[in-house]
């Protein structure tokens, strides 16, 4: 077993042409290794190829070219073992309304060949907070409860890897926090987590590493901290002691005055230092009352790389 939970090499997927649509290349030779034990973010705009990649990992879509290894098992050579190593929490609910949560988990475990004596239905129901709803019909569950049940179904066969596809889309803050508590607990126990999300602040807070896909290509893969440092820009928000009009500053410092009279000064730290910016302000006669730093976040990185 290697140190990688997933190894993807030269992965391509082309959807054949139909009467109404031309052939579409969804993935254009993706190379990506995801380390064991990490919380790994897979980001990209709509139509970037994320869902295709996840569906290939899940065995729901057949790749056109390349190789995929899941927990050391090649998808082509060991399809059953590779599928058993990964659990998928899908974006769209796929629950039978006439099954209870307990019944739904039991059936899912049976589909994976988990012997009845080895099933962890009660344990999973407790983890996802549905023990008191174990025997209620799924159709009577709230939307948030159904999302939690999807997580439970992904865990019935004790996979080493868990894929969360937009897990918090359309859910409230309470459920979102509960979900992340569960995810952190599973990760602390050694499970590798792969997360796709449109809430970039979640990826920034949760993920050790992030890969961004756009137009079927991997455009960047790095640690979250390194990605945040890639933007060579910084903004100081200066509150002057007295109201000032536009200040004469060097061309490499762009400025904007906010409605409350603060000065937003943006610049590239590679060209000019913080102290030099402040010196220019003092030379212009600005008396500084307060300083705040506006640090770029993952959304800024994402937009700069995908635009």
Automatic annotation (TrEMBL):
Keywords: ATP-binding, Nucleotide-binding, Transport. The keyword Magnesium does not apply. Residues 6-240 form the ABC transporter domain. GO terms for molecular function: ATP binding; ATP hydrolysis activity. The keyword Nucleotide-binding applies. This is ABC-2 type transport system ATP-binding protein. It comes from Cognatiyoonia sediminum.
